[in-house]
Amino acid sequence: MTEQRLHEILGQNVEAPAMVDKKLENTYAQLQGKRRTAKRKGLRPVRTVLIAAAAIALLCGTATAAYQIFRQDVAVNIPQTVQGFFGDSRQSWERTEIYDEVGHLNYWPKREVVSVDPEQAQTLVGDCLPESGYQWQIEDYTFTVEGYLLDETTGTGKFYYSVEHPGGFPEGSVDETGCLTYKSRISVVFSTKSDVDWPWISGKLRSVDMERSTAEKLYITEGGASGKLGWKAEDGLNVKFTVHGETDRDDDVLSVNLDLPGVKSVPVITAADPETGELAAAISPIAVRADARHIIEYLGPNRERVLGAVYYIALEYADGANYVILDTGLDNADYGMYDDEAYVVEVFNRLVDPHQVTAVLVDSQRYEVK
Questions:
Q1: Which helix (H) or strand (E) holds 68?
Q2: Three-state secondary-structure class, residue 316
Q3: Which residue blocks in 11-155 are alpha helix, DSSP H?
Q4: pLDDT tens track for 220-272
Q5: Whole-model pTM?
């Protein structure tokens, strides 16, 4: 690709200084050296996308253009991605209560992890994964999204990505439970491109894949949910990648807006309330959304609606086993919330075959899956 060709693509004539010409020449050379093939469902040619804003910055910017951003398709190892989503490469822990130096209680409920069968995962969600991984070079950070799964019926998503930084990350970036902390100064926020009131799908618990991560490259699993339904997986995602500086100054932040293509929503089965016929629960391989309206209370003279809390959630399987998602001192979810209809939403920390689920238990409520 020549500079003139890039001008034609952008649809404008730009007069670039010699220094920028040199930057373009180096950038094109890098692109030529990074071409590779994505391995999923047969060989697929690489598609390297030059984001228009970055190209304009290169051509029209000053000598101190901030950074160059490219999205590149990259090959990913599907079994490793599946392991990152659902497997036991993340850390388990026992219920822990620790008081810090100023007397604040830090509490972690027990968390269990289980192994995953890659073939079963391929059967359940293989068609819903993106066609490749996607990578961006953002200054000296390399951000790679290896995979994501979206469930528009429960309003949830699971994301598996890595952040690489020469020289590593600040001390305390990963805590004793194997989760990314604010000390890493890294923020990744996923949101739907659908035109909805509540677009965010990101969660809070960011588990680090302890088997693949190194001092300079962290592999992270995140589950998230939106407070309202209505978005579509096929619309794709917006991603905001941010690295906060060591100060609170507005100019001490590296932040870019990226995007991911749409995918197929994961399959879901549902259970109805036998008395009302209303939706009682929806179960997918990655999440459950279940009726929790029994926790609604109306308090005060104005009878204001408030939500109590759900204390127990579990799935029962056809073979007699169960998956306890939430109980006293136990939390086996990657993310949990109540949506705007007072349904409880839990993103699983393991793979679930919805067709093997016979019942969803929410406190004393039992929803049979037939």
A1: none
A2: strand
A3: 18-33, 52-60, 78-86, 118-125
A4: 999 999 989 999 999 999 999 999 988 878 778 999 999 999 999 999 999 99
A5: 0.79
